[in-house]
Design brief:
Elements lengths: L8 H8 L5 E5 L5 H14 L8 E5 L2 H15 L6 E4 H12 L10 E3 L1 H14 L9 H13 L4 H8 L3 H19 L2 E3 H14 L1 H10 L2 E4 L7 H11 L5 E5 L14 H4 L1 H4 L4 E5 L7 H11 L20 E8 H15 L9 E5 L5 H10 L4 E3 L9 H14 L4 H7 L9 H14 L3 H5 L2 H5 L3 H20 L5 H11 L2 H8 L2 H23 L5 H13 L10 E5 L8 E6 L18 H13 L2 E15 L2 E4 L4 H5 L5 E2 L8 H4 L1 H5 L9 H17 L9 E4 L3 E9 L3 E6 L4 E5 L6 E2 L3 H4 L1
Parallel strand pairs: 1-7, 1-8, 2-3, 2-6, 4-5, 6-7, 9-14, 9-16, 10-12, 10-13, 11-12, 13-14
Antiparallel strand pairs: 14-15, 17-18, 17-21, 18-19, 19-20
Helix pairs in contact: 1-2, 2-3, 4-9, 5-6, 5-8, 7-8, 9-10, 9-11, 14-27, 15-16, 17-18, 17-22, 17-23, 17-25, 17-26, 22-23, 23-31, 24-25, 25-31
């Protein structure tokens, strides 16, 4: 097979070593995935192995699809073989054998939404306080149990019989019963049940053991315990198992991945052959050395050093911006500069730590009319939660905005189904009024279900209040109020899932958007703000030809490569991120993520950070990332760092700081809630003659208080305002000397 000539001796050795256990342990970009696809092609083309007898598993559908394409290209045609994700491989097995576990044919697979609905009914059935025991709370525990193959009984035995454990046990038990009754499995069950089939039915196990003469697993470092068992059982007979991975790239420990699976492969499979690939084909010498200088700081790793035949190439460029907007402008400007005729926009990737960072880059790229795509996620302004909050604010600005209202009438769930909404809309049409006016009609609301009428009353009240006061409120206060008082935030918080966490991050980031505008114009009105946002949200430079700069998180970039890579946000607290501060191993996992990010680059790598960063609506002075400080300074291009930045890299500058607090969206969330609460509580204190300050109007004196709820203030600038107590961001004026 002439394609094998493209491989280096070690890669070829691995591709040809088809009998017996094989571990390909190698660093990034050393051709692990390439070797594996060549190995599959070799088995089929040269050794005449039927594709039917090969199993190749990986983690994402995208990776599985790419692997299939590469194999088909090598053997020149389509193959009907199992190149699948873990979940889909297990599902195929279960479709045939789940009867053994008591499932009927055609069992359902419950996605997270179904799971939540199921758990909700259980919480109700068990008469639990659904504020304290949310479905998400139980589902998280259950998921991690299932990852360890822990049944409800196991759970009780392991964690003892205290009050709380017993409740979890009951919920778990009932959940299992309910799934069974509905002939359904959740995603975790797919893996778990496939393993159970193997454990209980020797014939079934034997069937697959015999069938899969050759088994291959890519990204093996990210397998969890149940995936590990699955693979191990299947490989028992033929022992022709080839796993491919890099312990330095294990980035899913927080989801149960167990790095030991790869480190102990040689113990699990006696006589395993280990092939180390040491030549990197992806990156220039400098990029490689830089990545190595960071990852070598991790303890407990198998030391391996990559080399390359490539030139050292450009040094790593590092740029410290004044703030995150300058950072984004710099990146956009660099892309403009480096994008020559021979280059495509798709040669550039911006890989960030959290999705919330994408916004400033989207704005900067749009500003230069550079096409971009947000991979594995939506553009910031396309994200559901962002659209929702914008709709709330549009509604405050103009309650007659029916479109905005329709979008959020049942977000969070207020018990307004599609039918009810239709009726309400019809009524609005007949009466020739806005939908909001219909909702404000007590007679109409009274006819709805108890839940719906309570929900609608709250919505109408909150929106009317803020709408009436919009002139007197800062945009950021309106935003806080909408999030908290409509219950929108609460629902997300209660979900307690990774997805909800991401949504909260994005919502907190929306505060940065507002702050940016408020910084420029203290008197910014809601109307002006909404106009600017509308422009941003409508910019659509989506490029269908995919010739666009790619934006995504470092996590989703695993296995991919790009000529030009930008890693922004190199600051303590952001990267390494706030999650690293909770757990000891957190920092090492973040360092591996940094290694993954850096090694995506083929030709040029650029790191950036911002001296002042506004994220999740909070502005903070930052300190350069620990990873930057670990990076071999000789590999960083000093010339590219503008002179005025010099102080930022000065060690004395660094030592001047105490350790910065991590950017934690949940801390911000607490503050948002606190502020709304304080304002609500601070109503009755003002009396005529009181000196006050208002963030928008400045200093003034209270003239009178009407009905205890309208505070009339004459401000120093000559204006006279009537402000709603409990809503207006009014505080007592404290002369400077008292403040000190
Ligand atoms: P990662 O750890 O990021 O998953 P990997 O080890 O799987 O990386 P590949 O993606 O297989 O690496 O290969 C990296 C790059 O090197 C690809 O562009 C691939 O085509 C190229 N490459 C691999 N082996 C060789 C070789 N022997 N000769 C030339 N190029 C190679
Ligand atoms: Mg790979």
């Amino acid at each position: 097979m002439k394609e094998l000539d493209n491989l280096n001796p070690q890669q070829r050795e691995a591709a040809l070593y088809t009998e017996g256990p094989l571990l390909i342990l190698a660093g990034a970009g050393s051709g692990k995935t390439s070797t594996m696809t060549h190995r599959i092609a070799y088995l089929i083309k040269e050794k005449g192995v039927s594709p039917y007898r090969i199993l190749a598993v990986t983690f994402t559908n995208k990776a599985a699809g790419e692997m299939r394409d590469r194999v088909e290209a090598l053997i020149g045609g389509g193959v009907n073989m199992w190149i699948l994700t873990f979940h889909s491989a297990c599902l195929r097995i279960l479709r045939k054998h789940a009867g053994l576990l008591g499932y009927k044919d055609g069992f359902a697979v419950y996605d997270p939404t179904d799971q939540k609905a199921a758990m909700k009914s259980i919480v109700k059935e068990l008469n639990l306080d659904d504020k304290r025991y949310t479905p998400a709370y139980f589902l998280n525990i259950i998921s991690s149990c299932k990852e360890k193959a822990m049944t409800p009984d196991d759970y009780l035995q392991t964690y003892g019989e205290d009050y709380k454990t017993k409740i979890v046990y009951q919920a778990y038990q009932s959940y299992e019963t309910l799934l069974k009754k509905n002939n359904a499995m959740d995603f975790d069950d797919l893996l778990l049940n496939a393993v159970r089939v193997f454990q209980r039915d020797e014939a079934a196990l034997l069937e697959y053991q015999q069938r899969f003469q050759y088994i291959m697993v890519d990204e093996y470092q990210d397998t969890n315990s149940i995936q590990y068992t699955f693979v191990k059982m299947l490989a028992e007979q033929h022992q022709n198992i080839c796993v491919v991975g890099d312990d330095d790239q294990c980035i899913y420990q927080w989801r149960g991945a167990d790095i030991r699976n790869i480190l102990e492969f040689e113990k699990d499979f006696k006589n395993a052959k280990v092939v180390k690939l040491e030549q990197n084909y992806r990156s220039t010498g400098n990029i490689l050395a830089a990545a190595h200088s960071v990852i070598e700081k991790n303890r407990g790793r198998k030391d391996k050093k990559l080399w390359t035949e490539q030139e050292p190439g450009n040094k790593i460029v590092y740029f410290r911006a004044d703030d995150e907007r300058e950072e984004a402008r710099y990146v956009a400007q660099e892309i403009d500069r480096l994008k020559t005729k021979e280059r495509n926009y798709s040669d550039f990737a911006i890989l960030y730590r959290t999705n919330a960072q994408s916004r400033t880059f989207e704005e900067a790229l749009s500003g230069r009319e550079i096409p971009y795509r947000v991979l594995g996620g939506l553009r910031y302004y396309d994200r559901k939660e962002v659209k929702d909050i914008i709709s709330y604010m549009r509604l405050v600005q103009n309650p007659a905005d029916d479109l905005a209202l329709v979008r959020i009438i049942n977000e969070p769930k207020r018990g307004i189904g599609a039918k009810t909404l239709e009726k309400l809309q019809a009524l609005a049409k007949v009466r020739e009024v806005s939908l909001f006016q219909v909702l404000a009609d007590e007679e109409v609301v009274g006819s709805l279900s108890a839940k719906a009428s309570a929900g609608i009353r709250n919505l109408v009240e909150v929106v009317s209040q803020y709408s009436a006061e919009q002139e007197n409120l800062r945009v950021s206060d309106i935003y806080d109020g909408m999030l908290v008082k409509t219950g929108y935030l609460k629902v997300l918080e209660d979900q307690n899932t990774l997805e909800a966490e991401g949504r909260i991050e994005n919502l907190m980031e929306f505060k940065s958007v507002i702050y940016d505008y408020e910084k420029e114009d203290m008197q910014l009105s809601l109307l002006e703000f909404m106009e600017r946002i509308a422009l941003m949200a409508e910019v659509d430079n989506h490029d269908e030809n995919e010739n666009a700069v790619v934006l995504m998180t470092m996590h989703s970039a695993k296995g991919l490569e790009f000529p030009f890579v930008f890693l922004p946000g190199m600051e303590d607290g952001l990267f390494p991120g706030w999650r690293a501060f909770d757990r000891e191993e957190g920092l090492e996992e973040e360092r591996r993520l940094c290694y993954v990010g850096m090694t995506r680059a083929k030709e040029r790598l650029c790191l950036t950070s911002a001296n002042l960063r506004t994220l999740y609506g909070k502005t903070d002075l930052t300190r350069e990332s620990q990873f930057l400080r670990e990076l071999d300074k000789r590999l960083i291009d000093g010339d590219a760092i503008y002179e005025k930045r010099k102080s930022a890299r000065d060690p004395a500058f660094l030592d001047g700081y105490s350790r910065p607090k991590p950017f934690n969206p949940f801390q911000q969330l607490k503050e948002v809630k606190q502020q709304v609460k304080e304002k609500a509580a601070s109503t009755e204190h003002f009396e005529p003659g009181d000196e006050v300050v208002h963030p928008k109007f400045g200093r003034g004196t209270v003239d009178k208080v009407d009905h205890g709820s309208i505070i009339c203030v004459s401000f120093l600038d000559g204006s006279y305002k009537k402000l709603a107590a409990g809503l207006a961001p009014l505080s007592r004026y404290i002369p400077k000397k008292e403040r000190d």
